[in-house]
Amino acid sequence: MANKFDFKKAKMVPVPSRAIVPERDVDHTPALECIHLGIEFGGLKAVDDFNLTIGGTEIAGLIGPNGAGKTTVFNLLTKVYQPTHGTILVHGQDTSGKSVSQVNRMGVARTFQNIRLFDTMSVIDNVKVGLHNQERYSTLEGVLRLPSYWKREREFDERAHELLSIFDMEKLANEPAGSLPYGAQRRLEILRALGTNPKLLLLDEPAAGMNPSETAELMENIVKIRDEFQIAVLLIEHDMSLVMSICEGICVLNFGKVIAKGTAEEIQSNEAVIEAYLGKQNAEKGAEA
Q1: How many other CB atoms sit within 10 Å of the CB of residue 213?
Q2: Residues in CB range of 211: below 8 A, 6 or more apart
Q3: How far is the C-alpha of 190 from the C-alpha of 184, rounded, in Å?
Q4: Taking the chain, what is the end-to-end CA distance rounded to the nearest angstrom?
Q5: Alpha-carbon dihedral angle through residues 242, 247, 252, 257, given to the nearest 10 degrees
Q6: Tens digit of pLDDT for each residue in 92-108?
Q7: Maximum pairwise Cα distance, the chain
Q8: What pLDDT was estimated at residue 113?
C-alpha cells in the first residue's frame, strides 16, 4: 500500500459528532453525514450501522474486499435503494423519501463500475445530458424555437465545452462516445456527472481498467476537480496506491460493517483491515515474517 505520489493533504481534525474531517472544513457543514445507515434484503443485512462524515471539500475513500457492500452504500446515497433504517444528510439536508432525481438536484452525482454512456451520441451531447437538472425552457419555447430556447442551448453548449476542457477533450466533442478509448470514456462519465453541479461526487472504481499513466493523470484530475469546484469526492477503488495517495479520510467496509476509519497512515497499519484483505492466517504469517 505504499504511496507512489505525494499529494498535499489537509490535517484531519475532530468535529463535535466525533467524526474527523479536513481542518479546512471543520467550521462548515459536512458534505455528507450517514447516521446508523443500513439496508436488508430478505432479512440479510447488506449494510449495517454505517456511520460516515465527509467534510465539504474532502477527498474520501470507501474501500474493502469484494462483496463488502461498497456499491450498495453508493446505491443508498443516490436512492437507487431506499434505506431500511438510518439517516443520510447532504449538506445538512435530510434525503429521507427522496427519489434518485431529487437527490441529484440536492447535489449528489455518481459514476458507475460499468461505464454507462450513450455510445451513439456525441461526446458533447453526453456532457449536456448531465445538465438536465438545471432550468431549461418551457415546452412551448422548445416547440416554437423561441429566442429564449436558442439562448439557453448556447449556454449549455458553452458549459459543456468548459467541462470538456478540464480533461482536454474539446477536440473530441463531436466524436461518438462509444468510439473513445476506455480511459477517455471514464473521464467523460466523470464530466457528465460534474454537469449536474454536484456538492458530492461519488466515483465507483474510477481507475478500473486504466494503465499506470492514466491512473496517475486521474489522481491529478480528481484533486483538480475538488480544488476547482470546491466539492467533496467519495471514491470506491481497489487501487490502493491511488487511495492512499489522495484520500484524506478512508472508511473500510467488510461484510456490510465499518471495521476502520482514519487517515491513510492509520488504515495501512490497522490489523482488522489487513486481516480483511489477507485473511487471518495470511495476516499472521505476514506479521511473523
Answers
A1: 9
A2: 183
A3: 10
A4: 17
A5: -130
A6: 999 999 999 999 999 99
A7: 76
A8: 81
85-90 and 93-94 strand pairing: antiparallel
Q: Report the half-sphere exposure of 77 (CA within 13 A, side-chain side).
A: 32
88 and 94 in contact (C-beta within 8 Å)?
yes
Is residue 111 within 8 Å of 187, Cβ to Cβ?
no
The identity of residue 46, as a single letter, is A
- Please report, to the nearest 10 degrees, the dihedral formed by the alpha carbons of residues 216, 55, 203, 166 taken in order: -60
User: What cell was used for 190?
Assistant: 466523470
Q: Strand 32-41 to strand 44-54: parallel, antiparallel, or no bridges (unpaired)?
A: antiparallel
The answer to whether the beta carbons of residues 223 and 243 sit under 8 Å apart is no
Place of cell 445507515: 37
Write down the pTM of the prediction.
Answer: 0.86
Q: How far is CA 167 from the centre of its chain?
A: 17
SS3 string, 15-43, reads: CCCCCEEEHHHCCCCCCEEEEEEEEEECC
Which residues in the chain come in under a pLDDT of 70? 1-6, 16-17, 133-150, 278-289
Q: Using alpha carbons, select from 99, 76, 105 the residue that is nearest to residue 197.
A: 105
Instruction: List, in sequence order, the alpha helices (H) in the chain.
Output: 70-77, 100-106, 123-129, 139-144, 147-166, 182-194, 212-229, 240-246, 264-268, 271-278, 280-288
Strands 200-204 vs 108-110: parallel, antiparallel or unpaired? parallel
The whole-number pLDDT of residue 283 equals 43
